[in-house]
């Protein structure tokens, strides 16, 4: 797995979108046992924090110690540095294994072998994520141009799985029906640009070009954004299955 986000861990923690309460309601209802969950590639611990409300224990892992240093803290969340494809966990201990906004970076076959090894026979495996938000037509057009044209050449090839809504990832599990979910929030223009600053493609662009494209994007957006925060709608990507 590539470690792309360690260098932007503080920005990532402050500005990444969250997940709707309805996602955690679904996970709680779909798991008949709620003893122990694994939040793999936890990042800033958004999923781990939500799971901690109804799981006795949450094991949250990432390859980035910098990310976990900025993660959500709770007494029943145990953070550790682990590779998704080769963890130190015992066999069949998890009632839930979930990966949010990260599975496109994994070696699928090796990770799925690890899921099968660590998941209980009746456990649930979940893939979640999100793509670009829907805001207003004028803002959306500018953001689409920035995403596709300005930093477009700097996306890692794995990005295609998000563009395809995780529908084209290998998924060798008995797929379960999942709800259609949307994460809603109100953001300032500065918050949006902080989120875009954390994109892997933005960081690759800065490294390659020696300049940050986000300030110019902010100035382009300002006339159509206005001064007040705007509502954002992030459609949630969601797949779930059992062994």
Q: What tags apply to this protein structure?
A:
Rossmann fold, 36% helix, 8-stranded mixed β-sheet, alpha/beta, single chain
CATH class descriptor name of the domain at 6-131 and 156-184 and 233-242: Alpha Beta
Number of strands: 8
Helix content: 25-40%
Shape: globular
CATH topology of the domain at 6-131 and 156-184 and 233-242: Rossmann fold
Distance between the termini: 24 Å
- CA radius of gyration: 18 Å
Class based on secondary structure composition and strand pairing: alpha/beta
The CATH superfamily of the domain at 6-131 and 156-184 and 233-242 appears as Vaccinia Virus protein VP39
Major sheet: size, sense and barrel closure? 8 strands, mixed
Write down the secondary-structure element order: HHEHEHEEHEHHEEHHHE
Report the mean per-residue pLDDT as an integer: 94
Number of continuous helical runs: 10
Low-pLDDT stretches are none
User: Hey, roughly how much beta strand do the residues contain?
Assistant: 15-25%
> Which architecture name of the domain at 6-131 and 156-184 and 233-242 does CATH use?
3-Layer(aba) Sandwich
Blueprint (SSEs and pairs):
Blueprint: H1 9-15, H2 21-30, E1 36-40, H3 46-51, E2 57-62, H4 65-69, E3 77-81, E4 94-100, H5 108-118, E5 119-130, H6 137-150, H7 160-163, E6 174-176, E7 182-187, H8 189-197, H9 200-209, H10 214-225, E8 230-242
Parallel strand pairs: 1-2, 1-4, 2-3, 4-5
Antiparallel strand pairs: 5-8, 6-8, 7-8
């Amino acid at each position: 797995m590539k470690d792309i986000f360690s260098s932007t861990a503080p920005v990532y923690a402050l500005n990444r979108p969250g997940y709707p309460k309805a996602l955690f309601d679904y996970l709680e209802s779909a798991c008949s046992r709620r003893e122990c969950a694994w939040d793999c590639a936890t990042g800033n611990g958004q999923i781990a924090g939500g799971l901690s409300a109804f799981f006795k224990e949450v094991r949250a892992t990432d390859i980035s110690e910098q990310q976990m240093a900025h993660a959500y803290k709770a007494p029943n969340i145990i953070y550790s540095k682990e590779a998704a494809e080769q963890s130190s966990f015992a066999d069949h201990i998890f009632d839930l294994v979930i990966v949010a906004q990260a599975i496109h970076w994994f070696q699928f076959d090796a990770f799925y072998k690890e899921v099968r090894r660590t998941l209980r026979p009746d456990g649930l495996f979940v893939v979640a994520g999100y793509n670009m938000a829907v805001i207003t037509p004028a803002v959306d057009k500018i953001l689409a141009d920035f995403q596709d044209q300005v930093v477009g050449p700097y996306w890692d090839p794995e990005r295609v799985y998000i563009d395809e809504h995780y529908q084209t990832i290998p998924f060798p599990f008995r797929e379960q029906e999942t709800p259609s979910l949307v994460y809603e929030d109100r953001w300032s223009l500065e918050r949006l640009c902080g989120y875009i600053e954390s994109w892997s493609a933005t960081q690759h662009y800065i490294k390659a070009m020696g300049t940050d494209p986000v300030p110019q994007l902010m100035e382009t957006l300002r006339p159509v954004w206005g001064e007040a925060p705007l509502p954002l709608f992030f459609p949630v990507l969601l797949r779930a299955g059992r062994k």
